[in-house]
């Protein structure tokens, strides 16, 4: 019902204007109209500026080449309604112009039928010559399309199928902005897809690492039953400042020694190797242990054992606060990190062979 108010009001207004042709319109009040409202209506309609405005509208109406069925709707509103019915379809201005001449039941407005047929015929001719990519293109050629072929180029201040008070330059700017937004949206979608692919790749890597750790843990369980008792790294309370904490490399050494496997950079606790006492430059005894003489003697904590140096396995520490040679070794600067045993590099001249 509300959709019919606008048309009924305009029709009723034109009916009221017929009473203005009377000699004294102020006296003759139409039936059902408030006399006060009628007086205001007559005063507005008899003004010279209002008469001039109505006359100009009447002349412009006669110049209209083809009417439409939009009513008070704009072409933008018409396009929105068309999009609701066909969301995937791209509508050019010729599609909107043709739809604006069609009634809801599909019939064409009689006053626009001749021009409607001409535009429709021009559209059919172009469809036979355009490729699929060109046909679905959203770019508007405002200087060479079906409407220009039938009506000629648009006058200044309006564009057919777009609306009044709009220029071609504004439409071009809107098209450029829309294309830029589409490219930006596509780039964001690609970035999101790449991010998801990276996350999936990392999840796969984590799953493989988890499988590897499960294998290591199973070997540890087997080693606890098969291997002889060995020194296990003690648990350290969180926040403890104890000097008996071991480095990561020492934990790895103990791990491999527990399961009876050889570490790539070090060996198990050496046996039948020369026992020595580790001293400082003042000949102060700091710890005792044994020299490593197997195939891993040249590498310790991923460092090369240099000339005049020896790889030593520390068995007992006398001074945990004493500094190491060429620190850090295994993440430690003092002997406190080797209280539970471990490998380090020491100068040969500071070793006392027992």
Q: Which descriptors would you attach to this protein?
A:
single chain; 354 residues; alpha+beta; five-stranded antiparallel β-sheet; 10 helices; disordered N terminus
Mean pLDDT across all amino acids: 78
Strand fraction equals 5-15%
The biggest beta sheet is recorded as: 5 strands, antiparallel
Q: Can you count the helices?
A: 10
Q: Output the radius of gyration.
A: 47 Å
Q: Can you tell me the residue ranges where pLDDT is under 50 for at least 5 consecutive residues?
A: 1-5, 230-248, 258-270
Structural class: alpha+beta
Annotation, overall tally of beta strands: 9
Distance between the termini: 112 Å
Describe the protein in words.
By secondary structure, the protein is of the alpha+beta class. It has helices at residues 5-17, 35-45, 48-63, 75-85, 93-99, 113-129, 132-135, 146-151, 168-226, 248-258, and strands at residues 158-159, 163-164, 275-279, 285-291, 299-300, 303-304, 309-317, 342-347, 351-353. The chain is rod-shaped, with a radius of gyration of 47 Å.
């Amino acid at each position: 019902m509300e959709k019919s108010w606008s048309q009924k009001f305009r029709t009723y207004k034109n009916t009221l204007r017929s009473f203005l042709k009377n000699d004294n319109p102020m006296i003759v009040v139409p039936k059902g109209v408030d006399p006060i409202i009628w007086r205001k209506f007559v005063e507005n309609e008899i003004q010279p500026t209002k008469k001039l405005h109505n006359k100009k509208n009447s002349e412009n109406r006669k110049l209209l080449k083809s009417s439409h069925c939009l009513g008070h709707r704009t072409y933008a509103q018409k396009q929105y309604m068309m999009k609701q019915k066909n969301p995937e379809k791209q509508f050019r201005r010729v599609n909107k112009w043709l739809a604006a001449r069609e009634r809801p039941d599909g019939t064409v407005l009689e006053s626009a039928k001749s021009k409607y047929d001409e535009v429709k015929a021009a559209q059919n001719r172009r469809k036979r010559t355009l490729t699929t990519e060109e046909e679905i293109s959203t770019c508007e050629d405002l200087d060479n399309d079906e409407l220009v072929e039938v009506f000629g180029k648009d006058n200044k201040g309006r564009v057919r199928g777009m609306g009044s008070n709009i220029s071609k330059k504004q439409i071009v700017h809107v098209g450029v902005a829309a294309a830029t937004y589409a490219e930006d949206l596509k780039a964001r979608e690609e970035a999101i897809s790449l991010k998801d692919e990276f996350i999936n790749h990392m999840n796969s890597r984590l799953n493989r690492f988890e499988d590897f750790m499960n294998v290591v843990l199973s070997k540890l369980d087997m080693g606890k039953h098969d291997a002889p008792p060995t020194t296990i790294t003690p648990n350290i309370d969180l926040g403890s400042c104890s000097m008996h904490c071991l480095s990561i490399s020492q934990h790895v050494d103990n791990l491999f020694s527990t399961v009876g496997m050889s570490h790539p950079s070090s060996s198990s606790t050496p046996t039948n190797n020369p026992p020595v006492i580790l001293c400082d430059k003042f000949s102060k005894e700091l710890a005792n242990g044994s020299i490593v003489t197997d195939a891993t003697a040249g590498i310790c904590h991923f460092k090369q054992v240099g000339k005049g140096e020896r790889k030593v396995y520390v068995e007992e520490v006398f001074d945990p606060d004493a500094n190491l040679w060429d620190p850090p070794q295994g993440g430690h600067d003092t002997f406190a990190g080797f209280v539970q045993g471990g490998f380090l590099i020491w100068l040969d001249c500071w070793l006392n062979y027992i």
